[in-house]
């Protein structure tokens, strides 16, 4: 079912429009908060009286609480995005995680820490999907990939700021800065107009934001499932190899002290360039699938280099972290694929829930890693989990259709 809605012209200058800039800055703050815990995990837990093996065990627990919040928030904000509008969920989500960050600075117990990480996760879940949905709907298909490339590449650089802030300030202050950045961004949102496609849909008699409809059709479920699975390998790298890089570096006898903060910073620095490269390549090759396959292949090489770096210098180890980040830089293309797979009345639901379902997959990934490392050891356990993630990602990519030339002005027809 077609509906005529206005979109911006296909000139490259339109990628610097206000919707793209605000979506990019929103994702910047999102990533800042998302990776901040991975950076300040050790000092924050030590200040609460924990040490030894608890730094890993409780670190996994808190990370999973944040990801569980994002999983729930992905569904909530996605449905509301299709029913109430893309901008409204961008306002609400950023307000929630900004306040959660400010409160997180005052925690004095593990339960309080976990609760606020969960609430922050719920808030964080709305940013990327809403931003990508808005940008993909307001830009012409000839430059759509460049717009989402800008959102992702600017956004992931928030991890670099998080590392500098964590090194220059106490971990509590780092949370306060994140909260203030979010509230500042909230003021900019008032200058952005709602998507024309969403406004056109409001006048149509069509069901919107029905999350359960993703499970009532084999075709819709297949598109949703496979769109999700192609993003899983990236979060295996971030949640396991990068977050626990100090422990892996010790196991691999890396020459020098490896810090989680530096590993995260270098990984996300690679992601910035990876997102730029993948977005540009998808436009030049006029294909999303070929680009994702290329970057997954690079990721396999990066994982191999990571575990073959025994006895290497710390500089070489960080170089591998940069490469792994670059290989995981198909994130913008991955979310764009999800947005392009579905109609306007279900697009925000999918584009918001898919990346957060991927983030939510951190829970089974880390739990499987915990299980395997106890039986097989740290390195072998991670290799098995990584292998499973790569197989799932490659198989799902093979099952998805190409969406580069997909028009966005259509509705999903479901009962």
UniProtKB/TrEMBL annotation:
GO cellular component terms, A-Z: plasma membrane
Protein name according to UniProt: MFS transporter
Keywords: Membrane, Transmembrane, Transmembrane helix
Membrane spanning stretches: 12-40, 60-80, 87-106, 146-165, 171-188, 224-244, 256-279, 291-309, 315-338, 381-400
Alphabetical list of SUPFAM superfamilies matching this protein: MFS general substrate transporter
Top-level taxonomic group: Bacteria
Signal sequence, renumbered to the chain: none
Claim: Electron transport is one of the keywords in the record: no
Pfam families per record: MFS_1
GO molecular-function terms, A-Z: carboxylic acid transmembrane transporter activity
All residue ranges annotated as the Major facilitator superfamily (MFS) profile domain in the record: 19-405
Membrane topology: Multi-pass membrane protein
UniProt-annotated location(s): Membrane
């Amino acid at each position: 079912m077609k509906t005529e809605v206005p979109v911006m012209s296909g000139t490259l200058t339109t990628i610097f429009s206000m919707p793209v800039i605000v979506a990019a800055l929103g994702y910047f703050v999102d990533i800042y908060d998302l990776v901040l815990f991975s950076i300040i995990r050790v000092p924050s837990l030590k200040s609460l009286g924990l040490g030894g093996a608890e730094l890993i065990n409780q670190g996994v627990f808190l990370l999973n609480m944040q990801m569980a919040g994002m999983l729930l928030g992905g569904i909530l904000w996605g449905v509301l995005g299709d029913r109430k509008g893309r901008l409204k969920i961008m306002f609400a989500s950023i307000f929630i995680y900004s306040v959660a960050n400010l409160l997180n600075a005052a925690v004095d117990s593990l339960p309080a820490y976990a609760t606020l990480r969960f609430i922050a996760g719920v808030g964080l879940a709305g940013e990327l999907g809403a931003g990508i949905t808005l940008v993909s709907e307001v830009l012409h298909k000839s430059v759509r990939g460049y717009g989402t490339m800008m959102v992702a590449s600017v956004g992931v650089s928030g991890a670099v700021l998080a590392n500098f802030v964590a090194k220059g300030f106490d971990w509590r202050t780092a949370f306060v800065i994140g909260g203030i950045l979010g509230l500042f961004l909230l003021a900019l949102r008032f200058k952005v107009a709602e998507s024309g496609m969403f406004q056109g849909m409001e006048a149509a008699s069509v069901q919107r934001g029905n999350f359960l409809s993703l499970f009532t059709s084999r075709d819709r479920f297949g598109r949703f499932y496979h769109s999700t699975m192609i993003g899983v390998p990236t979060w295996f790298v971030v949640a396991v190899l990068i977050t626990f890089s100090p422990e892996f570096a010790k196991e691999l006898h890396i020459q020098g002290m490896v810090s989680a903060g530096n590993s995260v910073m270098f990984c996300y620095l690679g992601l910035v360039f990876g997102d730029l490269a993948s977005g540009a390549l998808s436009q030049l090759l006029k294909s999303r699938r070929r680009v994702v396959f290329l970057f997954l292949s690079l990721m396999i090489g990066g994982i191999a280099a990571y575990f073959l770096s025994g006895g290497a210098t710390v500089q070489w180890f960080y170089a591998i972290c940069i490469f792994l980040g670059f290989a995981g830089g198909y994130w913008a293309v991955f979310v764009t694929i999800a947005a392009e797979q579905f109609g306007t009345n279900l697009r925000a639901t999918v584009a918001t829930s898919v990346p957060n379902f991927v983030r939510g997959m951190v829970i089974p990934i880390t739990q499987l890693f915990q299980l395997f490392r106890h039986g097989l050891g740290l390195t072998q356990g991670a290799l098995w989990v990584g292998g499973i993630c790569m197989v799932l990602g490659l198989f799902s990519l093979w099952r998805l259709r190409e969406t580069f030339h997909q028009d966005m002005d259509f509705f999903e027809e479901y009962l």
